[in-house]
């Protein structure tokens, strides 16, 4: 009887291993497709509060291109929603930007604009900020990504 329980447990573990390997290969496939589109010299763009942008700038993300355009936008209490929308739209329309990082608090303010961006590159990623933790239930991009997989993928 104990032997049957162990055999069933091993079968479940093997099935789980198969699913994890299958998911891993699917993710690698999507990663290869995305990386094939990326070229050397593509940048990260950051839209966030002062602390978030400063952290990324200290990490070496900051760049100013030949047209004197920065790849970061600092949002403070005086920044209008229109200014945030303009910064986001300028980043997603630039050819030298591959990923746009935006704090979730700021993303909530321009959710309608983010939801209209459907291209894979530049990718838009919502990140937490110092004062506002990440909430996956508010992340529309994560919800879209979850829609890429079916329940069959996890059986």
Automatic annotation (TrEMBL):
Q: Name one Pfam family in it.
A: ATP-synt_F
- Give the highest taxon in the source lineage: Eukaryota
Q: Which InterPro entries match?
A: ATPase_V1-cplx_f_g_su (IPR008218), ATPase_V1-cplx_fsu_euk (IPR005772), ATPase_V1_fsu_sf (IPR036906)
Alphabetical keyword list: Hydrogen ion transport, Ion transport, Transport
Q: Name one GO molecular function term.
A: proton-transporting ATPase activity, rotational mechanism
**Keyword flag Translocase:** no
Q: Which residues form a coiled coil?
A: none
Assigned GO CC terms: proton-transporting V-type ATPase, V1 domain
Q: Which family does it belong to?
A: Belongs to the V-ATPase F subunit family.
Q: What is the name of this protein?
A: V-type proton ATPase subunit F
């Amino acid at each position: 009887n104990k032997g049957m329980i162990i055999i069933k447990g091993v079968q479940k573990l093997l099935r789980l291993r198969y699913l994890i390997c299958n998911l891993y290969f699917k993710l690698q496939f999507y990663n290869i497709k995305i990386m094939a589109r990326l070229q050397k010299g593509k940048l990260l763009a950051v839209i966030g509060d002062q602390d978030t942008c400063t952290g990324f700038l200290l990490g070496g993300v900051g760049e100013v291109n030949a047209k004197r355009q920065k790849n970061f936008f600092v949002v403070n209490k005086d920044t209008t929603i229109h200014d945030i929308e303009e910064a986001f739209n300028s980043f997603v329309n630039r050819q030298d930007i591959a990923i746009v990082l935006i704090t979730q608090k700021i993303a909530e303010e321009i959710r309608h604009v983010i939801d209209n961006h459907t291209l894979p590159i530049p990718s838009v990623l919502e990140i937490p900020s110092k004062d506002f933790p990440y909430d996956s239930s508010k992340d529309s991009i994560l919800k879209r990504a979850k829609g890429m997989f079916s329940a069959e993928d996890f059986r």
